[in-house]
DNA sequence: CTGAAAGCGCTTACAG
DNA sequence: CTGAAAGCGCTTACAG
């Protein structure tokens, strides 16, 4: 059982009294970047302060500093759900990059529900975060323009939205890579499990694919593009719909998310089709399971960790009032047995 | 682009001056639980304070309050990796339960590395968290006893450790459920992909299985229990080892984690075996993909979200210096095609 | 019932 | 180069 008799952390005052100097001098030294502490204190004083701080394991009290400076060094991230591996990976990137900049990051789930997005945003603001990162932007949403009007610093990751800085995968390119690959493999009848129509990821991957496909001279049957959830259930439903409504059976399915692809594979198998032989399937994100599935899944590798880190860098610029350009990181295609 | 001209949040002083009363009175009212504000202010004053607070959308400044009270209302959680769905789900539970108690939760990854566990713990403590939740306890680790000696309030989740309060799945029971099921299905030669030997999850699931199996009159071949990673790679490696070293071919494999089970399925398939016909596979945690795999995976359902919530409740008790008993939540077995 | 003061730990202009 | 003061927003014993 815990004793809960934590010893009181060392403060600036402790350091000052032990050194026989004023707390403000300690603070100045600890904040001077240069080892020599130009203007903050004499080289000798600075040395003694730093030495004692190290010896006593002094750590600044971030809340106290924040109270004084008006900044909390807190970043808030809102994602559809953390149990979605794609967002979890991106958030790992956010966490790492934030820690490097001496920020702390929070994360909350919105479940892609507009009410929850608002609610969670207000909670984050009540906690006085310095800025926000949204992984759940809706193309038809009203929250982002509103926050912008209120002057709240934020950036987007994962999904983009016109007019706001975002760190995303180049999803259009990702879709194009899949079109090139399937065309080259000789497929001419294809279908798309396109994801949610409110998410730029689904929209961009799909439009990249469709436009390139047409550019190559291919046709997309009406009813061959089905909007659906990004999860396994969404993928299997999309395939059911495609199989029921398509006039011509597709020989390949592009699912804009690996989990949807896994759901699609399940649905195809229960129709008696062998993926990789009777029908090709390609997913998106190249999550670790893709390569390890019983039938390894071809997938577009997106740099999820890097997207999270890029989002933090972008937010840093916004907070510093520097100019920002959205970042689109390049994906590449991993071809495996499911479409080999 | 963001304007970054956020309007200053409303403070207690703002409320007080608008009402012509003293800030301390406002604070007292806002902290009195009862609507009538017994002892804090007159019913009329209390009413006016609450009304204005609502109207101006006053939110307390948690850092300022914490500075005064000595508590930050911050909880730190450390997990092996957030991109492990099991931990991500548990952390969702942590986040939700913490928010309900007006706590904010942080999470960091330790990658199951003892150095990182220490480092991340110290970062959390430097941020003055009120308490910690560890999802990455090692059975042979030295960190927990050390933190206990230092009087730092913490609890464990996911993995247990003797002598410390934990919220876990009843992993022994989970292993027993699998043994009963496979025995009943007529299997007599079994193997186990047992997970990491430093994690109570793997150890308990395995010992629950093995002990029950022997109790039923079964034998476990030497070399039929293989320690391995919890991920897909670990599962496929474990199966490779089992197939190479087992004297008798098993007819069933119990993998203590769904991702390991997926890896196992892949390895079995590349040996030409059809899971569910030639060989049974059972996983653990019943993650959402289990049911949606091309060959649906039998799995022990563990209440991941509830484990996270229970950990927060446990930590709350520790912080209140109430007595705590470890919580072991009951799992159940979902039988599917992979072992049907 | 309500005001006034002190102080949590830190930072930052301001003197000297 | 260094000290002293003020103040961030809040809470809490203490008076009256």
TrEMBL record, chains A, B:
Annotated protein name in UniProt: LacI family transcriptional regulator
Superkingdom classification of source: Bacteria
Chain ranges of the HTH lacI-type domain: 10-69
Record has Transcription as a keyword: yes
Alphabetical UniProt keywords: DNA-binding, Transcription, Transcription regulation
One Pfam family matching this protein: LacI
PANTHER family: HTH-TYPE TRANSCRIPTIONAL REGULATOR GALS, LACI-RELATED TRANSCRIPTIONAL REPRESSOR
The UniProt record lists the keyword Transcription: yes
